[in-house]
Amino acid sequence: MYSDFRLVSEQFSQSPQKLSFYSWYGNARLFYFRVPPDTVLLHWLLQVSQGGDLTCANVEITVYFRYGAPPVINPLGTSFPANTSMQPSFLIKMLQSNTSINISHPAPGDWFVAAHLPPSSQKIEMKGFVPTCAYTFQPDMLVVRVVEVSILEPNIPFPQTLLFHPSYLKVSVLVQSDMPSVMRLQLNTGMDSGGSLTISLWVNKSVISNNTLIMVCVNAASPFLSFNSSLNCTTAFFQGYPLSLSTSSRKANLIIPYPETDNWYLSLQLVCLQSPEECEKASVLVETTLSLVPCLNDCGPYGQCLLLRRHGYLYAGCSCKAGWCGWGCSDNSTAQTVAQQRAAALLLTLSNLLFLAPITVSVYRCLLVEASVYAYTMFFSMFYHACDQPGEAVLCILNYDTLQYCDFLGSGVSIWVTILCMAQLKAALKYVLLLLGTLVFAMSLQLNRMGIWNVMGPCLFALVLMVTMWVRSSCPDSISC
Description:
It contains 6 helices and 20 strands. The protein has helices spanning 338-350, 356-364, 368-387, 400-422, 427-447, 453-474; strands at 2-13, 17-18, 21-22, 29-35, 39-52, 61-67, 90-94, 98-104, 109-119, 133-151, 173-176, 181-187, 196-203, 212-220, 241-245, 251-257, 262-272, 283-293, 303-310, 313-320.
C-alpha cells in the first residue's frame, strides 16, 4: 500500500441576504461556513448587487471575517461593559462590486462572515415617499484541499490509528508555585459561540500572603504554561487574556463575547516576585465560576436580549433603547434621563387630547358616529404612544401590536369620515361609504401596516368624491353639471 496526494477544489454557497443599515448587532447579516480539514487555500468571493430605484446612491459595505465565532463588531464606536475582552476581526470595506480575498492554510472549522451597511441615520421615513433601495450580499467560499488517496496492494497491511480524548470537569482549582493548574472548558461543539463566556475568580484573603500573586491566563486551543518566563499569556496559537489575584485585588472577572469554537483553558500559578522561596510549599484554593450566557447582564434595564438564527445557528444580541447603546446597553453617552423620558411620554400622549375639539363639535352637531370615531382614535393613539416609549416611562394596557393596529386604523378612518362629512352626502350613502372604507382600511393595514398608500388611496378617493359633490351642489338648477 502507498499514498498519493491530490489537490481537490470545492465550492460552498449560501443564499443572498438583503443588507440593512446598522443600529444594533441584529442588523448585521451573518453567514456561517465550515472549512474542511487539509485546506491549503481559501478563496472568498464577495458579491454585492443593488436593486430598486435608479436614484439609489452607492454605499460602503463593511464585511467582517472571523474564525471560530461570529465577529465582535463596534461600528458605532460605543463602549463595552467592564471586564470585557475580545479578539479583533478582519474587515474590509467595499462598494457595489465583486471582491475576492485569499487566505492560505486557514484553520479548519467554523468561519463566520458578517456584513452591514453604514450606521443608520435614525430618521423616520414613510414608505412610499423615499426611494426603495435594496442592497444584496452573497459570499461564496472556494477551497483547495490536499487529499491523501490510499492505494491498497495485495498482502500489505493498512494501519489505522484511533485517538481517545478523555473529558473531565474540575469544580475547584488548587494553585501551587511549582507548576500551573489547568482547567479545560470544552466549547468545541459549535453551538456555544453565540453567547458570552464569563469567568469569575475569587480567593480568600486569609489564605494568601502580601507578597503572593496568582497569575491567571485564559487561552483557546492550548494552555499557557510558561509563567516562569513570561506573563503575557501568549501561546503559539492564541493571544490569551491575563488576569491576576492578590491581597489588594481578591476578585477578577473576564467577559469574552462570542468565544471561539475550541477547547478553552484556564491556567493558574502562584508567583512570589520578591522572595520565590515563600512559594515553594504554598498552595491557595481559588473559587472559580465559568458560565455561558446569551447576553451580558441580560442587556441591563435599557436593553432587550434577542436570539437570532441563521441556518440553524443561534446567537444573541442586545437591542438598546432610551438612547443607551453598546454591546451590553451599558453606554450612557447618548442616554435620556428619567425626567426626559417622562416628559417626552407625557407630551406625546397628552397631545392626543386635541381630539376633544372635533369630538365636541361633532356632538354639538349631532354627528355621533364621527364623534365615536374620534374618541376611538384619541383613546388608542394615547395608549399606543404610552406603550411605545423606551426606558421606564412605559404603560401598556394591551399587547403592543394590538395597540399599534388600532391606532393606525383609527387614524385612517378619522380622515375618511371627516372627508365624507365635508362632502355633504345623503345619510344612507355616507354611512355605506363609511363602512366600506373602514373595511378597506382594515384589510390594507393587515397587508402592509407601514405603507403610505394605505391612507392616501382611500383619502384621495374621498377627496375626489367631495370635490365632485361640491361642484354639483354649486351648479344652478337650470345648468346640468
